[in-house]
Amino acid sequence: MLVDVADGGLLSLSAWPAGELPARVGPPAPLVLPLDGDSLEDLRWYLEDYLKHPYAAYAERGSDVAARLPAWGEGLFHAVFGAPESRAAYAAVRARGNQVEVVIRSESPELLGLPWELMRDPGRGRPLVLDGVALTRGLPVSDLGGSFPAAEGRLRVLMVISRPDGRDDVGYRMIARPLLGMLDAVRGNVELVVLRPPTLAHLHRTLQEAEPFQVVHFDGHGVSGGAIVFEKEGGGADRVPPEKVARVLADGRVPVVLLNACRSAEVAPRLVRGGAASVVAMGYSVYAVAAAEFMATCYERLFAGDRIADAVTAGRAHLALRDERPSPKGGLPLADWVVPVHYLRRDVSFPGLRTERRGPSLDDLLDRPREEPSPEDDLAPVGAFVGRDDLFHTLESAARLQRVVILHGPAGVGKSELAKAFGRWWRDTGGVDRPDWVIWHSFEPGLASFGLAGVVAEIGLRVFGTDFASRDPGQRLEAVRRLLRERRLLLVWDDFESVHTMPNPVTPPLSAAELDELKRFLHEAGTVLITSRNPEEWLGDLRRVEVAGLSAEEAVDYADRLLEPFPQAARRRESPAFADLMEWLDGHPLTMRVVLPHLDTTGPAALLDGLRGTAPLPGHDTLAAGLGYSFERLPEADRRALTATALFHGVLDANLLDWMSGLDDVPDRIRGLTAADWTRILDGAAAVGLLTRVGRGMYRAHPALPAYLMGRWRAEDTFAEEHAAAVHAKLSAYSALADFVWPRLSGADAKALVLLVRMHARDFGDMLGHAVEHRIWDRAQCIAQTLDRYWEIRGLTEEAQGWTDRMRLALEDADGSLSDKSGCWLFVVTAEAVRHLKAQRIEQARDIYATVLRHAGQDVLPTVHHQLGVVAAALRRWDEAGRWYREALAANERLGDRAAVAGNCHQLGLLAQERGRWKEAERWYRRSLAIAQELGDRPGVAGSCHQLGMVAQERGRWEEAEQWYDRSLAIYEEAGDRPHLAATYHQLGILAQDRRRWAEAERWHLESLTIKEQLGLRSELVATYHQLGVLAASLGRRQEAERWFGQALALAELLGMRADADRERDSLDILTRS
């Protein structure tokens, strides 16, 4: 059925049976749309923004918009088929049972851009596009020039994979890679070629010189300002107008263009005008995972001979079936089947591709584990290969610009599997002149010759055949050199560390002359990908790419695939210990492949104990073989020293190990080792792939290394005595580190020290647990102080409370009385009280301080009085709060405690601010600021600047307020202090509202909302919900404002925040009356 929509809004409907001319159905009628501007904005927001912040009122708004989609769809259906004769024509077409297609045609980009995909037949209860109806868009025939047919024979697809920002590009998932798995069913009829490099000039040359392509697919992450984004020759973005691209495609006679870039629909009509027969694009921003699966489904149907219109319909159905998309709250459903759009001027299909399926469908690939590949294929994967799209792009660029690339990293991190996957990728996408010219050469001892002669022989025999062996060595070398200069091959050299940096003792080493010969050959060998546990610095100035573990998202995907055959594992994955296990595994593929399947019979906590070396580890022999090969390459003394590092659970720090080795009672194996000694030992372990350098003398261990080292250590007679001494030394070392870090977390180095604590967090927790268990309270207190500040900065309130409960249980007797370790107890309970105050749990905080007063000595009374002032202020007892603060201030001034004086002044400023005494508040804040600057207390400086910004804002000094906020923001961002960042974002949002900068205000409030939701700062969320309500009301979004105020009221009542609850009721009353 053909729907013509004129610029003036008149709609004409024609029935167009196959093989006949269109027949007008009834007279033209005005188009009455069910979606106004606000509705279209709601739809855009739902598809593009909702899952970025799916919290509170936005969660309600998202659900509300999703619930309105059927009504909008029925309204659009009525707008097109509402007249009786139109409904009858539609019913007749559906009754024939043939394929149905609705074509929307208009000269107006705005009318074409409407979400026609929503159309829904009320009588069938489903959107048309999910009920077997294809929907396409077209331009008036008079507006089109000549088109060109698709060439017969095999289908050739040219992929333009543009990622100009490299790893920073959004959603870094290549569409082409899932397609390769579907090509087996049509092998010989479909050729997928990747444009290398992805530049406009190279696209023009390729289309002019090559056998014609029927499809050009732009696999990028977005369309920028109505332009299509290519890469420049040397890297960077090249934004090209669609008309220019259309001319290049027309010159190359390309009929089909696919764009999975966000909002690419705006360029689709311009490509159609330029001659493309069919263009598939995206009407809105789209999630990378959705674009990948949609396009993969389209290709599957295209390869099966379907029309493009029907392939698009199949892709939509797939998105509707698999509708979960990533969000901060995990996977959530999104109706983004409406996003893809199809523009056409002529039907296109490739019926010559029809073939009996030999491989699995896309749904099979997504739903079933992959079959094991043939072991005879050098490039065959071991198990499933997932992710690594960022490294693929890095390798693509490096192979083009630097030619020789060294992939280096620890044993089992996936270097060989990545190299094999990249080899398959080049083999299957035109990266080499012939598919068998990806030549794999393993340098694993016993498998091949290490010398140049072995490499040359393998290349020559693969390319030239058996006659190559009859030539003399000089002829063979020259023939291979000429081949590599003139033709495109990819050489993959695996396990290269065995050649020189980690030679096997049973293999004769290469001479200096042979190494030099190999090195010279490498620099003239064309494109070579080398894998090694070592960066192989001896090879000179080559491109080196470090391979780390899988990203968190990739690791989850890999775990899903590994555990799919093990049904019992699903239940064990629900345990909190599974998250700890995944964190320990650190995305390390080999260790995951060996360890995770044991979840079928073993709990995650037991597996984690095995990795730590405190319990048997299933699959240990498999992991130990690779680790042992590396470990035995180290000198004996280094192996003995490294064994003691089995105690460490996060990173190995040369400086910390230096301090630990200087203690009197450490084991002899590490006694007296200096930082330089440890750096040499750890560098040696990194060189053989046991560790990974992370900077500043720190190294991350292979996840199975602690278990391996602990196993070796346990086998020694002196283990028990040495282990006890080493644990004691480790506790001393971490206590010393905590003593060093804690006072400096408020200084200029806070950012670096927060990162340091984060890297050592596992071992800090391990030693805190040891100190609590053995009642070593002085050590427990110094570690707990540092961790408490770290937890505060990172917003880890649940972890802080968990440790508080554990420590209080150990410190207090059954009747609640205090044990003899009052210093540690006092710190723990006062820190807990502070958290209660921040969470508006005033009564709990007051009860704790009342208990503290009964036990505290004179030296801590000023601190207690200060906090009692905070409690009184929270209860809005201003005079009482003032008395407590002044008592504390006088005592601290007598004691000369400048830091405490700054805190007292700050609280007196808050008190004056609450009472509207702006000048007094400013005086107190400036006094607090001056002391904080004098002491180098950066958090104190940031807090005073923040409050001075609020005072300036209250007095209408907006530019001054912004300057104060910017100062505090810079300090909090540097330290990564997320709770205080949320507070500053909140104030910047209010400031933007005061200045009527609505979009800016919403951005700041959403930043604040996200942090508070993620950290569970419920009492602070009340204010954010309120301000988002105020913002929505200011913009006339009444329903949204009502939701936000309602959410704020409900939460305030739940938390007992009476004043806030009263404010929300007043806001709702005002909204009702307005």
TrEMBL record:
The organism's place on the tree of life at top rank: Bacteria
InterPro entries linked to this entry: AAA+_ATPase (IPR003593), CHAT_dom (IPR024983), NACHT_NTPase (IPR007111), P-loop_NTPase (IPR027417), TPR-like_helical_dom_sf (IPR011990), TPR_rpt (IPR019734)
Domain AAA+ ATPase: 401-563
Pfam families from the UniProt entry: CHAT, NACHT, TPR_12, TPR_7
Region (Disordered): 360-380
Gene3D superfamilies documented for this protein: P-loop containing nucleotide triphosphate hydrolases, Tetratricopeptide repeat domain
Biased composition (Basic and acidic residues): 360-373
UniProt protein name: AAA+ ATPase domain-containing protein
